[in-house]
Design goal:
It is found in: Cell membrane. Keywords: Cell cycle, Cell division, Cell membrane, Membrane. This is Cell division protein FtsA. Helices cover 33% and strands 30% of the residues. The protein has 12 helices and 20 strands. The protein has 4 domains: 5-81 and 162-193 and 353-415, ATPase, nucleotide binding domain (Nucleotidyltransferase, domain 5); 83-159, Dna Ligase, domain 1 (2-Layer Sandwich); 197-231 and 295-347, ATPase, nucleotide binding domain (Nucleotidyltransferase, domain 5, 2-Layer Sandwich), CATH 3.30.420; 234-290, Alpha-Beta Complex (Actin, Chain A, domain 4). A hairpin with a 2-residue loop joins strand 13 (213-219) and strand 14. The two termini are 26 Å apart.
Amino acid sequence: MNEYVVGIDIGSSKVCAAAGKLDKNGNIQIIGITSTPCNGLKRGIVVDIDSTAEGIKNTIEQLERMIDSKITEVYVSIPGEICDISSNRGVVAVSAGDREITQNDVDRVLKAAKIISVPSDKEIIGVVPEQFIVDGYDNITDPLGMCGIRLEVDAQIIMCQSTIISNLFKSINKAGLEGKGLVFQPMAVALAVLRAEEMKMGTLLLDIGAETTSVVLFRDNKLIFNDAIALGGNTITKDISLCLKLPQSESEKIKIKYGDLLKAQDDKDFKIKINANFDNVVEVKNSLLNEIIAARIEEIIYIIKKKLESLNYLDEVSGIVVVGGGIALTKGSIDMCKEILGKPVRIGVSEYIGAENTMHSSAVGVVKDIISSGKIVFKEEKVTKERKRNDAKSIWDDEKDDYEEDRGDGFFSKIKGFFTDFF
């Protein structure tokens, strides 16, 4: 029995955490959300276990004060750029005598899809079904209860290096917490900010972090493209520091406070006073600062455009949703994105009150993903017969328990955070 579900997103510059639960009407509520600085990760990989553990611990302590409850268990998002995705097909014969497809048949076909060659340094951490096929009829999202002889599944196999996951869980354990499971970050963010129709029509999700920018394309409720570029918010901070000869700490402050691409060509220029090294005060033109910021953001967007064009994905994009830190919130960045990519662009905002900040999208998505999967039973939760009828198998499976049954509902319940223990 659990009172809250806690999801954390460990990034290159900060750790975000969110706590949520079901209300009496069965709706998900985000009760608390917070973040603290952390520099123990670089591009999704733990480079300092102690620093990462300290950042996690500080964040959880703040969250505990917000929700007035002790936190011992957390679910963690895993960045898409450190995962490999392979496609495979699983095939099984329907076992029931009356040829009705049962949950056992779905479990077996998902296991069959995992029979692929896996490098020695990696492990399969989950399966995302794209479609089920019953006796040759494809595009089936839920085959339970249907009749057939042959059941197939086209699935995406998610793999990651075992050492990366082990170091991540060691950091969580060192913070005094138990890591209960992982959630594939692109799916968590999509669950938090994308609308149902956007998942079908072809939406590009740009998650701009400190060190990397994640580029994910969804169409027909499927993840069809997942990549990342090694540029992010910290790149702009370093540019400002180098060009204006300022400490990076001061460069980050003025980037957040004065960053405005709409003023890069503003005739009404003014100077910004900054405390540089050795208590020296220097003055920087606001227009120059924003020209530096604009140049790097423009480069990032053009790199994304070229990447999509080279793979013939740009024409499949009907809209763009941007989440992340400073770049997403920089005034004028959305207009620049519209101009360069030629697509409608919006800021990805969560539907939950108090969780509208785009930096918290991943943590909120983890909470929503786990709760909607039906894995957690709350003290006050009353499960109705209708919900039981809608329960379906989660395809994120426990590696050590031979992929035991987890239950959820809907498309995203089929990509739920999986329970695992790599050490």
